[in-house]
Amino acid sequence: MKNIIIFGAPGSGKGTYSDEIVKRYNMGHISTGDVLRAEIKGGTELGKTAKSYIDQGQLLPDSLMIDILAKTYDAMPTGQGVIFDGFPRTIAQAEALKQMLAERKHDMGVMVELIVDEETLLARLLNRAIEQGRADDNEETIKKRFAVYHAQTEPLAEWFEKEGMRHTFTWKGDKDVMLGEIFAYLDTLK
Q: Suppose 39 and one of 5, 47, 120, 167 were both cysteines; which one would form an S-S bond, judging by CB atoms 3.0 to 4.6 Å apart?
């Protein structure tokens, strides 16, 4: 299986769909959110630095994210592909990821883009805040995250388009429908 970059706004289901893809295709999974939350919970210096950015709804510096990603990627089993969940988020990060993978004689694979309307995203994130007690899922921070997404991350979709990697899937109100569409596409990559 090729590497997969799962892409979408906060709350679009990147983690949920990544988990399903990992199960079906037995891939490695790098969730930058999970990696960062573990560092924060562990009270590491990286975690403290990351928390200061996250609490403000900001992205971490690219060099910091690439270092984390390279270390995590190198620890993954080789040959089965990896799904990147929550990274890259900027064109500079995408170019750095492409370079990091090329140094390992790997390519980026494909980008799976999840398109979900903002009203649905906000409702999901507020619900997640209640269910999981996530402090970064309050309405003010969510709106900042949307603004950062639109300004810094959304333009990355066009970069993936130019690279010939972009494959979009639009929310139609049913997780299983969207998942079926994603699986149908990924099955063609085997």
A: 47
Residue 175 tokens read as: 């997780």
Q: pLDDT category, 40, cuts 50, 70, 90?
A: confident
Q: Where are the domains of the chain?
A: 4-175
Task: Identify which of 125, 160, 110 has the alpha carbon closest to the alpha carbon of residue 10.
Answer: 125
**DSSP label at residue 61:** P
- Interatomic CA distance for residues 79 and 101, integer angstroms: 13
- Position 22: which residue type? V
Q: At what angle do helices 32-42 and 45-54 cross, to 10 degrees?
A: 120
From start to end of the chain, where are the E strands? 4-8, 28-31, 82-85, 110-115, 166-170
Domain 4-175 fold is Rossmann fold (3.40.50)
For 150-188, how does the pLDDT look when each residue is reduced to its tens digit (9 = 90+)? 998 889 999 999 999 999 999 999 999 999 999 999 999
Q: How do residues 55-73 score in pLDDT, each as one tens digit?
A: 887 777 888 788 778 888 9
Q: Are 53 and 148 in contact (CB under 8 A)?
A: no
